[in-house]
What does this fold into?
Amino acid sequence: MTKKAKANDFSITSGNGVMSGKAKAIRWLISIILIIYTCFTIFVIGATLLNSLKTKSDLVTNFVGLPKSVTLANFATILLEDDFLLYFRNSLILTVCGTVGCILLSAMAAYGIARYEFKGKSFLSSYFLIGMMVPIQVSVLPLFLILRQLGLLNHLLGLVLVYISQISISCLIFQKFFRTIPKALEESARLDGCHDLKIFFRIVLPICKPVIFTMSLITAIGYWNDFYMPMVLLGNKNVRTLTLAIYQYIGQFTKYMSESMAAVIVTLIPIVIIYFLFSSQIVEGLTGGAVKG
Amino acid sequence: MKKRVLAALLVGAMVTGLLAGCGSSSGDEGSSDGTSGSITVWYHDYSFEDSLVEVIDAFNEEYPDIEVNYEIRADGDYYSLLSTAIQSGDGPDLFWTNGTATVNMPDYVENGALVDLTDDVDFSLFDEDTMALSEVDGRYYSVPWLTLDTRTVYYNKDMFEEHGWEVPKTFSEFEDLLAEIKGEGITPISMALESWSLLFGFEPLLAGYDPEYSAKLQDYTDITATDQPVRDCMQLMVDWADAGYFGDNWQGVIDNASQILAFTSGNAAMNIAGSWDAATISSNNPDLNYGAFAIPSEDGTCGLVGTASNGLSVSSASDNVEAAVTFANFCATQEAQTIWVQSQGAVPATDTIEASTEIAQEIADSGQGNQYRSWQNVLSSYSSTGNASTVWGDDFTKIFTGEMTVDELCDEIQNEM
Amino acid sequence: MRKKRKNRNHLFFIAPGFIFYTVFVVLPILCVLVLGFTNWSGMGEIKFIGLDNFITIFTDERFTPTFFNALKNNLKYLVCVWLIITPIQYLIAYVLYIKIPAHKYIKFMVFLPYVISTTIVGFFATLIFNPNIGFMNEFLEAIGMETGAWFGDPDWAFKLLILFVIWQGSGSGIMIFYSNFMDISQDVMEACRVDGCTEWQRFWHILLPLSLPSCASIITMSTIWALAVFDLPYILGGSNGGVNGSLDFANTVFYRYTFGSGLNGRQDYGFGAAICLIMFIIMLLVTFIQNKVLAKFEYDN
It folds into this structure.
């Protein structure tokens, strides 16, 4: 048996390698409770999916039941919407650039704070929390002015810069995480004459794969779903995002009820697929443990 | 340390930027020849996007050299964004405001942010009442749209037919009808626990309850905004709510959307709401067979509460005022007005435009030619402190949840008048 | 010599993030805070009016009760975060870590709501809890039970909000706890297995202490979020803060007074900024105290 498999094995069994009947029963009970809990999610998404297949008048008079006849007209309305591909591209650029930048900057800043001793360290650590303390609605007008000053209003780059700068949460998580990594690894690399930057990119970051992955996922989802900032900072049609385009349907829910149902499904699909694909990878990346670097 | 100083400097710069922006709100007037160039229009809701595009297309047939871009900024902070954009000098050339119905446009006028359109735009299409929306100190600052924003009672025709109910001819018939519908276990009226939805129910009710008082709201002389008819009518509405006329759990309906759904899904027999909701109702359930009537008074007279709606104003900070005014002028033409009213499916506020939908025509006809001023409009126009409408907006729902009595609310509002 | 080099290096790590963050996050906030001392209404001159806005917040007979009711809700919410939401997140992360039956499926499903935007969650809330067309009342009616007004019922609104927060918002915390568990060196676990300790011992003596740093950061985070909560209450309860103010929070008050009710009220940016400043101070205080407590807790272990 490889070490990896053993480690996995360990998690299933308790100390002596054989689980007692009682422990097993408790585990099953918890499982069942959680499975019932997840049914709510399946239910709402399933109901939305079913509803998205109904015709308009079927939907409103038969909200709870099964569709009388199945139609894809609602999806056609959403997907054949003039510039769907453009919107998709805009959303993708914003999410990818914003996430990569944000994670990189916050990991570096967190490493700097967690690993070095210097004056003003605790101040800096608190300073980076400020961003979480006010909802984005508060600072939207000054942001508008700053981007205008930079000539980046109605440009994707402008919003990317704003997204990159939202490092509060990830910086906090990374800081706590870096403290748990034993210093020995870095010290030995340093003795070998590695530059600090090289240590960071070659040794520290690979160890942090799981956390980086988790934080990227959380950040990317936030940016993908965001409609408020694009609405305020990207007014032109050519920089409109997918979420914003779809929000127009959901925002006028009553008028476009059946289209809204389809819109919800369409927004969910890419994220669910990405999450589904990567959720197995995350486990792969994890099992190596900390010594892997 | 250096960084902190730097940060402080940056903040300083930003704030001065803001302050400076405020001082110089009126920029130099455009340098272009006026018949070409590009202008930008801001509107506040996606539901106007299609109509705007149609008007722009028609405009471009006549003025192909002026490129008109539009941006929809749909959220609660439309005005904040607009103000910021105008002050920073990067505002749109034309933009929507609610005219004199809210404080925003008069504020803009006071700050010199709007171009005086009185002499540059041909306003001959509009009557005096309509122009009141655009008028500040005797000058006009916006081009209204001839869509009548009124309130009406939508009713489910099939349901009425099935149960043998009749459209009421008098106020007491209306009350009897409600009791009868309730008696059959159906929700008589769909309503939402939200200030504006309640208002659009209250105002037509007041018009039917006391048409004489409602007529006096026009000039707001000899009466106050919280006279006995207002109090009685509010109390009547609260009583109806308590009697279950709005449904048993209506307090859980917190927005206009859910209110409409209860009607279109056949849960409620009637829906008292804005005339602009007709497009949404038809779109929500295309098979719904519904009509509209106005709440009649005891002697059978009916009337519509509401006014035309406001449209675009021209920003004085525009780089191309001439082109912007050209567009504003086009909006004031019969052609543009017809396109707008019909594509909105709205109730026309004039005889010269035909309603594009049956229901809009039905609403227009139900008023018997009588038009009343909105009670809420009186609050915002005649409040001595400027806060009456805010007080109403904050507390109107409280008389329905039992946090306040009708008299407490009315006294509170009266204090601000 | 070596020390000097180190000093330069930490700057290199921190500077890029610091600059971006300062320009696009802190600067806008500072601008707003300065506005708290003005009467700027969005248009016209900015006049500095000293502490007038703050005096209004604490003495105005209309505004003060509203604001304190909102603060009370924030506090209630904070307590729920500490006592209900975070423990639930931790426990779910733990049972996923010990790989209970169907753990892969559960992990996938528990995190899924997190990827759903708040707008859509509001949409789902309508789907289920709308008193007229929602599933809940249809269901209750079908089995002959009494229907409810749900978000329109002051007794229910807050509880439902918490349920929705758990459903939608707990995913991120669970993931962070979980990835933290996974980062715990397998060698330690191995040693534990060799020593033949029970599951409880392992949880109490190894996992809990080792995962405390992530607990601390999640608690810090969710405390700040509890005080800055905006999206869900706004979408579920409307801009007026729900029936009897049951879903009114400091930030919904801020939003209402800054941008006006919908498109029709008067906006007062200065006043809104003052509300924001006060919330900011409260958050700094709470975070400061909490960090002290958590730090003590960390060292104790």
